[in-house]
Each structure stands twice: as C-alpha cells, then as structure tokens.
Amino acid sequence: MNSPLPVMPARPAHDAHDAFGMNTHLGYQNPENTNRFTEETVDLLLELGVGKVRQKLYCDENRSLNAARSGLSRLMAAGVKVCAPTLIDDDATSLEVARTRMDLFLDELERNPDTYDLRLIEAFPGLNEPNGGKKATAAWAQQTRWAQQAIYEQTRARHAFDHVAVQGPPLNRRGGRGAQGVGGRNPGAGQQPQAAAGLSREERRAQRVAGRLTPEERQERRAAGRGRLTREERQAQRAAGRLTPEERQAQRAERQQNRRGGPAPGQAGPVRGFEAVLSSDAAEVGDISHWVDRADMHIYPGDQDTFNGGPPQAFVEAVRGMYLAGRPVSVTESGWSNCSPDDPDGQAYTGGGKSCPESVTAKYAPKAPLNALLLGHQAIYAYVMLENQPPYADAGHNLRSSKFGYIRTPGLEPSTWERKAQFHAMRRFLALFADPGPAFQPAGLPLGIAADCPDLQSMLFQRRTGQHLLALWRTVDLYACDPKTNAGSYLQIPPAKVTVTVDGDRPLELFQPSFKDGSVGTWKTASLTLDVGDELLVLAIG
Q: Does position 209 have pLDDT exceeding 70, yes or no?
C-alpha cells in the first residue's frame, strides 16, 4: 500500500506577482531623455502588468513634478502600488532641513487626493546610495542618519501614512575588483579583492569612473530642485562635504594601500573586498533600526541568477550593523546589463563590468521574484523600465549603464522602442500569478516531488478559484562574462528529470513563461515527469 503524500503548504498566487516591481524615472524630463515620454512609458507598464513601481516623488513645482503626477495618477488608478523615494542628500543638510523637506513631500501626497491614492503608497526608502559619491565618510553618514530620522518621524506623525513602511538607505556596493552594478560602480559577484596595481587599462578606467554620477543621477538632482537651497543650506552643504585633515590623510593612506596591494604604513590586514567595505560603511551609519521598518538593498547579480549573484546573503550580513534589531529585506534595484557581444551595441562595449545577454536575462527574470520569496525578501524591483538611447558618452561605463532596461530604445522617439525578451517573459509571469482580491487562506495540496538534481527549487501557490500553481526552477547560473574583455560563454545546463505526483488523476497544464505564450502541454494524470533545465516551469493543478 502506497504511503499518503505529504501536504505541501501553499501561498496566495498573488504573492509571486507582488514580489516583483519595476524602477521608473518619470521625473527625468530632459528633452533628450526617453523617460520624458510619460504616457508611453505608463502604457508599457500597464501592458507588462506590473503591480509595483519604484518612482521618486517630487514636491517642487517643475516639469518633473507634473510628469510624476501624471504617471502615478494613471498607475494608481490601475491599482499599482508605489515605493516612493523622497529625500536626496541635498535635502538633508541638517535634521531640521530634512524634516521640512519631508513634510513637503507628505503635503504633496495628502493635498492631491485626485492624483494620489494614499492606500497604494507602500514604502518610503532612505537616501539612495549615500556612500556612493565623493563626500567624506562622516558627512554622508550624518546626512543619512538625519534623512532616516526625518523620514520616519515625519511619516509616523501623520495617521494617513500609518500603513507605509519606512525603509532604510540602500548602500552602494563599493570595494573589491570589477564593476557590477548600474554605472559600473559595483564589483563582480564572487570575485576576490585584488590590488589595483594588477588591473588592466580598462579596469583602471572603470575604477576612475566609479565615483562619477551617471546622467540619470545628475538628472535626478536637477529634477529634485537642487537650486532651491537657501544660502545657509548651500554653505552647510559645502562644509559637510569637506574633508578634515585626518580624513584626507586616511584617504591618501587608502589610495596608497590600493596601489601597493597591501596595507598602508601603520595599518594591518588584506585589501578589503566589498563585504568589508560595505560593513564598514554600515557601521559608520550605525544602528537605525528604530527609524526603519524594512532594510533596503541594491543587489546586482552581474551575469548570475539572483539567488547566487551578489551574493544576497553577503549583502544582508554586511549591512547588519544598521539593523541590529533585525528587519525584513526589500531589494529595490536588481538587474542585468544587456551589452554582451550578442546584444545590440554590445560589440562596441569595451568592458569594465559584467554583461548578460537578453536571451539569458529572459530566463533569469521570472525566477527573480520566486528567489526573493525563497530568500525571505519582501520583493525585488527590476532596474529599469527604459534604456537610454544612443549616442553614448563612452563605450564603457556610459554604454553599460544605459543597457539595463526592459525596453530597448534605439532612438528617442517611442515609435523606435522595442520590447526586450525579458519584458515578454515577465508579462507572461505576472499574468500567470495575478490574482488580486481580499486576503484569503490558501489550502495546501498532497504532493510529491522527486528530482535527480540538487539545485531544484519548488514553491506552491493557490488562486482564489482553488487552482494550484507549482513553480519549479533551478538556481543555476547560465552565463559567464569576463569583465575585462566582455567575452562571454553560455553555460549548458542538462535537463533534470523531475516527477510530480498528486493525489489522484487531476487536470495538469504546463507553462514556460520565459519564451512561450499560453500552455505548452495538458494532461489528466496522477504523476508527471518533466525535464527541468534552465527555465522556470509552472504546473497548474486543477
């Protein structure tokens, strides 16, 4: 007699849908920026079926404010939730200035009920990558604390925002060798720190541009009304950015250490990798748990699967000093730069950071929200909706940072735009798991899964109709890029045999959202053996 199947617990299907968000730049209204086409961008977001966006708020009367109002009004009318960054470092020259500015953002939301649905404001993050510029450590760390305190206290003082989660400041990944994230500032996953003296010319060049603001960051600062600072605030800002004699000496010592490949005179220890540098930056900020509901992180996987690339566990551990009380995690930027030799413009890329082909990104992308749930994260936000169109300022840093989009933009005009493979992959994924409605308690299912591979992951979901969705995927890397040359190789993943057993004959329907619309097979059986390779499979069980 066969043993009864164990009951596999299920989650609401919409959990998978809600674990994915998209970064947008509706406020970038430069005439030569694709993001100025607000209506066309919103049309594409609604076509994608996204349930969350990360979009900066504005509170000063300018075209950025008008564009954000227009876009968010349409998105919220469709039920899209918003993770809404507010303060930038120019808003946090003192605690009082930060409080005043945060109140202006909250006023903007509360005083325009025809534009904003406050119920759909999900989160206010802290300062965006405050450690990524050239300010003295003490200066940016102090601004980060002022901003975090102001965001939390001003938000909690208004009951209209009781439901909004205040997230911490996502720190910039610094240290180690290579360039991994947007703008080429982040080192490659899994790489060991090495001495700068051994870097190639391309790597030294990537290192030099690492501290520069990207065109998007410069636009963000202009849009946020930097010119509206008072004279006193500008003076305070200049003072905050100045290095003390001790800090200048420490900075020289650090440069010396990097050039020599070892500790500077009077120091001990090896050249630091990104974990040590990030941990040090987090320690400079200090414990901000009392001003935070969630930790906020930017984790770019380079050429890897999001379960492996980063790696996520190293990021969480590195910033633990800011969250001593423990906080859930939201990854608000993640993505792949499509500038491999097989991508448009990829042959021109001179290297310095990792790239990943569109065909591989289409396989990675639908796994990302499931990996987020597997890791216990609240959500993962793709960076970014739109590419930047050519011409590019250079064939390295600038080209690479322009290629993270889900929409290819060969030209400025929307008529030239093209949906990338990952856009369609996520459109199918989101349609498959979309199940909006009141909260409900999903029922588990008697289910057996037997696999001949160690890297299989599975997760069971249930729709409100009673139908179950079994997600099957493997946390495997599919591409290996050499950041020096941009040469890459596709990693072959032999399919694994996976047998799914249910309690009696049931209607089964299989989906492969990476490249195929609709189902790819239907059965009525109690047992089904599938080949699970490098793509996500979703088995609907009636």
A: no
